[in-house]
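Support request from a user on the community tier.

User writes: "When I paste my structure tokens into the form, the page sometimes reloads and wipes my input. The last time it worked, I copied everything first. Here is what I submitted, just in case something in the input itself triggers the reload:"
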């Protein structure tokens, strides 16, 4: 059966070129809609793509209609203090879908945590897990569509043309991730770290990337590997695990690393205990993938391939991107 996906864009999204602070200038909702429809058609998914300036209408769509879909992708309202009440009802609408155990993924074009940790209030769905993808421009949407419609093994392999010389990408994993498969499988899944390493290497190869996968329980080892990558790898995917929430040393090392950076988490820490809401990594990365389970790793490798390709095509654009200073935005 064709998977069906609802994409809901909140107020402000119709005027995207106004908030292109992360270098995604020229991206309009029409471009996003057309690319999303094209990808869905290619993957055999049925897509219903919507945008509204009326928040109430958005809640109604989510609460009343989402049951008919296999997955929902939401680019929510921009943070507004006066909208607390609306946000509350919005969350309860989201809980309805998450409670049905359907995938719900919050997407943003920009990395909303680049400037400040509370640039937006994340959606909250205690009854079910919610994915989160931000910072990849149009690809935030496309990755979410892929996450809902595809099993990893059925991903098409022609998405990105690989460069002639493979780019090296390090995938760094922090403490306790060596216990994957045995550690809280209800949260982190049943795959082991070796399984993830294999999958990342395989997806990397498909995209012309040489993936180096590493794990340590020691903060200093992670710092050493970040430093080593400064001169050896143009891309880094990092799950700093518990150090995400504590490590100024990792934060400082990441500041010194000039390459492309993606933060990945198996769970969505911002929907868990309060001590996991703060990330020393988020303000420094190009994009974030969280709450998509182990599949988030493979998606991150694909997204990294896209980022590296884009950088290769337009180095000046990339330089402008790293200088960009987005204030808010989604
Ligand atoms: C984690 C989330 C962290 O809060 C936690 O300390 C981890 C794993 C994740 O991948 O979901 O160890 O990074």
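"...and here is what came back when it finally went through:"
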């Amino acid at each position: 059966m064709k998977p069906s996906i609802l994409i809901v864009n909140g107020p402000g999204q119709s005027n995207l070129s106004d908030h292109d602070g992360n270098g995604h200038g020229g991206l309009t909702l029409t471009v996003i809609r057309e690319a999303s429809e094209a990808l869905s058609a290619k993957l055999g998914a049925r897509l219903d793509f919507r945008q509204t300036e009326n928040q109430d209408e958005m809640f109604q769509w989510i609460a009343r209609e989402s049951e008919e879909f296999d997955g929902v992708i939401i680019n929510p309202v921009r943070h507004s203090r006066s909208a607390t009440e609306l946000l509350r009802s919005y969350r309860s609408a989201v809980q309805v879908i998450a409670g049905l155990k359907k995938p719900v993924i919050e997407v943003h074009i920009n990395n909303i945590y680049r400037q400040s940790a509370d640039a937006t209030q994340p959606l909250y769905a205690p009854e079910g897990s919610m994915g989160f993808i931000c910072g990849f421009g149009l690809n935030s949407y496309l990755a979410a569509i892929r996450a809902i419609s595809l099993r990893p093994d059925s991903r098409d392999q022609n998405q990105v043309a690989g460069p002639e010389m493979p780019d090296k990408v390090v995938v760094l994993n922090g403490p306790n991730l060596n216990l994957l498969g045995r550690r809280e499988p209800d949260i982190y899944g049943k795959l082991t770290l070796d399984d993830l390493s294999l999958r990342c290497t395989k997806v990397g190869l498909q995209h012309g990337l040489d993936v180096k996968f590493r794990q340590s329980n020691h903060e200093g080892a992670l710092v050493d590997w970040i430093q080593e990558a400064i001169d050896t790898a143009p891309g880094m995917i990092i799950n700093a695990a518990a150090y995400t929430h504590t490590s100024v040393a990792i934060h400082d090392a990441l500041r010194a690393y000039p390459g492309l950076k993606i933060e990945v988490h198996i769970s969505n820490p911002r929907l868990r205990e309060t001590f996991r809401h703060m990330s020393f990594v988020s303000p420094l990365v190009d994009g974030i993938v969280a709450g998509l389970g182990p599949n988030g790793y493979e998606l991150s490798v694909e997204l990294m391939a896209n980022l590296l390709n884009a950088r290769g095509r337009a180095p000046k654009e990339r330089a402008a991107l790293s200088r960009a200073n987005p204030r808010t935005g989604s």
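Agent notes: The reload is a front-end session timeout and is unrelated to the input. The pocket of DQA is lined by residues 176, 239, 241-242, 244, 265-267, 269, 276 (CB under 6 Å). The beta strands are 4-9, 46-51, 71-75, 104-108, 131-134, 167-173, 209-215, 235-239, 260-265, 287-290. Escalated to web team.
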